[in-house]
Design goal:
35% of the residues lie in helices and 25% in strands. The protein has helices at 32-35, 38-53, 57-63, 67-92, 187-204; strands at 3-4, 10-12, 17-19, 100-103, 118-122, 127-132, 139-146, 152-158, 163-170, 173-178. The strands form three sheets. It has a four-stranded antiparallel β-sheet. Strand 2 and strand 3 (17-19) form a beta hairpin. The longest helix is centred in the middle third of the chain and has 26 residues, at 67-92.
Amino acid sequence: MGQFSDDGGWWWDGTTWTATAQIVLPQLPVTEFEQSGRLKGARNFMKRGSLFFSANTFISLGLIFLFPWLAALRDYRSWRLEQLALATAYLLGPREAMLAGETSLFDSHIADRVRRDLAVAVTAGHILVFGIDFLDGQPRWVALASRPTDVKIELRPVLFGLYPALWIRRGNEQWRIHGTPSVFRPEPVLEAWRQGATKTASNRA
């Protein structure tokens, strides 16, 4: 079973210590959501939608809330959360499961394509920020591993208040997990972080 050092800078895999910045996660198992076939449909829809939406920013601002597009984004998010749980289990083992997670999920009028570059997982004892290797890839490296008491997580709007984002800070370091309204669900992450911070602080007292 893996574990991180107290400062989050190193990870023990049961045999050796590896610098957290040098962790490369192996290929994760296929998730249940991907096995169901729903991910394929979401991918196809989003690829077609990105070509249309990128043509006109003002049109995309209105059309992005059409149900099929939002449904595809929600499917992508569900798939990513399953991947986050697998990545967390790989690093920390079954005794410290992911309690909540969220992923960056930009739609095509912000970028030229759907982009997911960061994701956050919260356990009872850790905050983990993962980097995504490519558009349809998986959590591949660890940008942050920290105790809940050592980080601050805030919910802030971006882009004139239209889009929510989780701001995660540790010292001078900062990560932003962006989302799309009605798809992004930051509240479970915030609640799990608060509970973890309270519990960790109590254990240290």
